[in-house]
Amino acid sequence: MTTTKATPARFDHDDPDRPRGWNFDSLLVLITLLPLVFLFQGPIRRALSAPAMQNWMTVFVAVALQALPFLVLGVLLSATLAVFVPTRFFARALPRKPALAVPVAGMAGVVLPGCECASVPVAGALVRRGVTPAAALTFLLSAPAINPIVLTATAVAFPRNPEMVFARLGASLLVACAMGWLWQRLGRADWLRPPAHRSIDGLSKGEAFWGSVRHDFVHAGGFLVLGAMAAATLKAIVPASWLHTAAANPVVSVLVLAIVAVLLSICSEADAFVAAALTQFSLTARLAFLVVGPMIDLKLFGMQAATFGRGFALRFAPCTFVLAVLFSALTGAVLL
């Protein structure tokens, strides 16, 4: 009788049998860009010395460096939560009644750090383990918006406006609970596709942890760079008259920054520093940016559709956006 040794699980990019073609990874991009930079160093040097470009680089570097420590800490804690905390812990901690489980799941986001990239798979795991969908979806929205890393980053980004921390906490928690109760009241079972189980058999805890850290840091770090670039562009290149025109109207300014949050898809550990750089806009408009972004953006829509089904995402995302804008405006009017 012969026995076969189990083959350890592999990530897709480690599969030796996978056909290999052109892979435009970071090393290939670097090798391609270095000769071009050398050939055109004169024009590049003149462009970088322009006052507008100097302002752009100053804002970009400031936003990126301020946000980076919080991004690293958030990624490490998110990986710890995903790998070392068993999913059954959440199922046992939540009340059995859905109406009570919703606010408890919402408050769990205050003590359980994790970015929005981690909240979607965690919510999927909760649904698989029998947690009521209303509570799982509440946690999905609240965890990346009101966890201690995000709130600390908001306090650092807005040192002269400590009320922004309480406004973000209150508005985000209200939206998360409202969406949970709304799903409990109106949601249908056939709208929510049961999430598939992704096995990590063959991987040790350490391998799974560092794999999660690498994935989340590269993914979230890329969006941080894009967000810092966008903030710097708005600050240094876009005509100030355009920004002041949009910022002058309270309704338009809130809608503009809410849409910008959806398009930029910045990680919640870093978005406060981008919002702080948008000084042309009111605190209420920037609050909308901070509330909408961690709950619904382009990357989150794709992740929600992949985890729970496209039909779910097409219903859940627009409703979340509307409630986030509404509660942001109301909270800003009261606290800011």
From TrEMBL:
Pfam families: ArsP_1. It is found in: Cell membrane. InterPro entries: DUF318 (IPR005524), UPF0718 (IPR052923). It is a multi-pass membrane protein. The chain crosses the membrane at residues 21-40, 60-87, 99-122, 134-158, 165-183, 217-234, 246-266, 272-292, 312-335. Keywords: Cell membrane, Membrane, Transmembrane, Transmembrane helix. Belongs to the UPF0718 family. This is Uncharacterized membrane protein YraQ (UPF0718 family).
